[in-house]
Amino acid sequence: MKKAVSLVSGGADSATVLAMMEKMNYEIYAISFNYSQRNNVELEKVKQLVNNYNIKQHKIVNIDLRNFGGSALTDNDIEVPKYKDHSELQNDLYSNHLSIPVTYVPARNTIFLSYALGFSEIIGAFDIFIGIHATDSANYPDCRLEYLAAFNNLATAVGVSGKQITIHAPLINMSKGEIIKAGLELGVDYSKTISCYDPSDDGLSCGTCLSCLTRLKAFEENNVTDPANYKK
């Protein structure tokens, strides 16, 4: 059985990737990050999520990205944008399509993948999985095919073994609706995931941020009720 490392956030995308990896018969080593994110509820969801899969080993790495700030997810002085509905969100994204959202965390995927690369070398794995997808690539520079190709080159060049290390992004060409559809077919329990950028202290999703509205729309496209808990 081939070993592989998967980045697991506690969100719907990484849950779907885990299900895909399990179907492909990988021996899964999961890595998650406490980076002092606004949504610290996702770390509790991560613990629930990994129990649903045959995970060989799960690491939670602590990094305090509040030291840099620069994102609504790591700086409480920057507000998470909220919208009344999905149409308003789409209008805002269209109007600001050349701008990077304030919810972008600078270099986050580079940092995460670097840790995953180190973990891979230690356990002798040559495959790393990440849940970036087509919807993300429109807004976040480190979720694009060009970025993925560049990191793949870096991973192979710096690997101590000299063997090819591959970064897999199985969702890269999929919309959020397609991801949820694939996950439902694989039996993913999305009640054990959270996507919200700004949940309440008791773990309720806001229902009005970019991530919540994108998720809600994806479930709607599949004629399924989102099992996440939202503020009333």
Task: Describe the 3D structure.
It is built from eight helices and five strands. It has helices spanning 12-23, 41-50, 86-95, 108-123, 134-137, 145-158, 176-185, 210-221; strands spanning 3-7, 27-34, 55-62, 127-129, 166-168. The model has no long low-confidence stretch (mean pLDDT 90). The chain has a domain at 3-70 and 104-191: HUPs (Rossmann fold). It starts with a strand and ends in an 11-residue tail after the last helix. It is globular. It has 232 residues and is α/β, with parallel strands linked by helices. 41% of the residues are buried. Helix 1 (12-23) packs across helix 7 and helix 7 (176-185) packs across helix 8. Strand 1 (3-7), helix 1 (12-23) and strand 2 (27-34) form a beta-alpha-beta unit. Strands 3-2-1-4-5 form a five-stranded parallel β-sheet, with helices on both faces. The protein is 38% helix and 12% strand.
Draw up the topology in text.
Layout: E1 3-7, H1 12-23, E2 27-34, H2 41-50, E3 55-62, H3 86-95, H4 108-123, E4 127-129, H5 134-137, H6 145-158, E5 166-168, H7 176-185, H8 210-221
Parallel strand pairs: 1-2, 1-4, 2-3, 4-5
Helix pairs in contact: 1-7, 7-8
Rg (CA only): 17 Å
- The CATH class of the domain at 3-70 and 104-191 is Alpha Beta
Per CATH, the superfamily of the domain at 3-70 and 104-191 is HUPs
Annotation field: number of helices:
8
Structural class: alpha/beta
State the helicity in percent bands: 25-40%
Name the CATH architecture of the domain at 3-70 and 104-191. 3-Layer(aba) Sandwich
